[in-house]
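This follows on from our talk about sequence and fold. I would like you to pick a protein and set down its sequence and fold. Go ahead and set the record down below:
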Amino acid sequence: MKTDNFTFYLDFDGVIADSAQECIKTSFDAWLKYNKEMLEMNIKKDFESFRDLVTENALKYRFLVTPPEHYYCLIDFIAQEILSTKIELTNKSAQKKFRRSTQTVSPKLLEKFKVDFFLTRKDRLEKYGKSNWLLENPPTKFLEKFLNLIKQINSEIIIISRKDRNSISLWLDEKKINVSQIFCNEKISQYDNSKFNLIEHLQSQKNYKKGIFIDDSAEEIISKDWKSISITPILAGWGYNLKKDNSESVLNQIQTEIL
């Protein structure tokens, strides 16, 4: 065995929990608070079909969103597409229109939406119940195999996510998964909004013992000197990106690193 003291830094959404369905439904409900009058003017009867079409397309392009306030931009540009034309999006055109939306939507509105997003999530949890919320947030297929694999060593799991702490804690408690620490957006923002900088700080406290960082966002991984802090970065292809599912090869890589 190569090590008996290993740290796994894991993103949450897309890596260990598939929260896309719940996030998109929450986002639509929060977006609706700002656009209800506009929809009432444009959609007389077929609201359910409209909502389903927005949700269906937003799920395809969930990989575009990083901070929660950008869910507004995702829902908004897709809704406008559906209202104005027959929707015909490609990955390239969706990325372009999403980027434009993030640049044109008022920062004040996005800040308000961010608050409403979390309030809406809380409201939906109370309205539909915990069991439904968990169904909308199933574990990824990577998670069970990963947990079985690391049983063989002494290790710790640290969650580093831009999701809210309450949702993560509730999900982990329900799944009976123990982690050492949870760091969310408030903590990440203290380190120039960089997961790398936060992990670098945590690694310095551990005398740079070996670890692995798994995230499904290439932006969190590329152009960082992970080797200098004894971290192996891994892009989760099973998460919210355009990569192929690489969960089996990642599990093999982890096994090689730790055993």
Summary: Strands lie at 6-10, 155-160, 181-183, 211-215, 231-235. The first strand starts at residue 6 and ends at 10.
